[in-house]
Amino acid sequence: YMLINVVQNDQIRDLAQFAHQFQQMSAEDSARFGSLLSPHLIVVIREESDFGGRGNATAHLEQALSSPGYIEDKELIRKVC
Question: pTM higher than 0.70, yes or no?
Answer without folding.
Answer: no
